[in-house]
Amino acid sequence: MDQEEYRRRITSYIKRDNDPEFEPKFEEFKQLCSYVSGGYEDSESFVKLNEHLLKVEGNHKAGFANRIFYLALPPSVFIPVARHAREQCHARGVNRIIVEKPFGKDLDSCRELLKAIKQFWTEDETYRIDHYLGKEMVKNLLVLRFANIATNAAWDKNSISNVQITFKEPFGTEGRGGYFDEFGIIRDIMQNRKSSYLESPHLYFLMSMCVDLLQVLSILTMERPVSFSPEDIRDEKVPLSEAERGACSHGCGRFPGQGVAHHPADYA
User: Class assignment of domain 131-268?
Assistant: First the structure.
């Protein structure tokens, strides 16, 4: 993939309008986007990436770097990429690394990944996220609950009969078959019960490995935090998650669809 193809791909879903200033701004945005190809485990590729970053930063003359390394990558390459990004691309200024779930497959692999990344990146530089929880509708739940006096006052067991959270996508695996074969749909959208709580000061949402639905549940049902700081939100989610753990030991299960034979390993 060359530079032009990369720009075509990342701009293909941008909606155009009739604003006369749109096209010039659109072209300006495209020129700010660049692509450098390389291997995940090839140190020379990261040297080349760093050279490109220095060139980009030189054009802005800020005097210091502000770099974010976003690892939306296969989990099997998190560690080598984190290592090379630190060794070849860490610059004077602000450096951050973002790891998108799944953060391991179980408690042991989660701890192994944590330990490996901490060899190269400090906790203050490390962010663990799920892009789904960054959606406006999910983030707005906090405002809907705690900034709205009328809603907040009625948000309790006396006024709400039940809560139903539905997860639907209008498409299939879309080329992600290998990923789902390795990690499974349960780990992708539910929080694994064997995972550990990662107490990062930058976890706006309490992250584990696969957190979508139970994180939405925690936002809906947790007590009001002291503030909206990451630490205070996390502190309110921890006791709720422990309560969920106890409830699911009695009343939760996984059920196959009707008329389909399933092997227990399908739900691991």
Answer: alpha beta
Determine contact, residues 87/120, Cβ cutoff 8 Å: yes
Give pLDDT tens digits for 179-190: 667 666 666 665
Res 179: pLDDT: 67
Whether the Cβ atoms of residue 66 and residue 93 lie closer than 8 Å to each other: yes
Domain ranges, ordered by start, for the chain? 131-268
- Listed as ranges, residues in the chain with pLDDT below 50 are 191-211, 251, 255-268
pLDDT of residue 88: 94
